[in-house]
């Protein structure tokens, strides 16, 4: 059941990140889930490296959205450099 919750929360975090970041990011349903879950992983590992989280501690929802926004900015930079 925790995998299903991870997907649901990842989707919501991905949607919020796409809504908060300016610009047109054309991502489908599947990629929005990947964005949210990836943002959570980014926030977890960055938070552990900075000492904000201990190992095994879960990441907050806001940190997941911020991580997803960072991933969107990285995606936008890569996409614009290929043009």
Question: How is this structure best described in words?
Answer:
The chain is mainly α and 83 residues long. The protein has one domain. The chain is built from 3 helices and no strands. It has helices at residues 2-20, 29-50, 61-81. The protein is globular and about 40 Å long.
Secondary structure layout plus pairing:
Blueprint (H helix, E strand, L loop, with lengths): L1 H19 L8 H22 L10 H21 L2
Helix pairs in contact: 1-2, 1-3, 2-3
Comma- or semicolon-separated keywords:
single chain, mainly alpha, 83 residues
Radius of gyration: 13 Å
**What is the straight-line distance between the termini?**
42 Å
Number of helices: 3
Largest sheet: none
What's a quick, concise take on this entry?
With 83 residues, this protein is mostly helical.
């Amino acid at each position: 059941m925790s995998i299903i919750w991870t997907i649901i929360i990842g989707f919501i975090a991905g949607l919020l990140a796409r809504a908060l970041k300016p610009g047109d990011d054309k991502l489908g349903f599947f990629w929005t889930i990947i964005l949210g879950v990836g943002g959570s992983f980014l926030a977890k590992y960055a938070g552990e490296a900075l000492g904000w989280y201990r190992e095994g501690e879960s990441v907050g929802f806001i940190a997941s959205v911020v991580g997803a926004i960072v991933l969107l900015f990285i995606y936008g930079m890569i996409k614009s450099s290929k043009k």
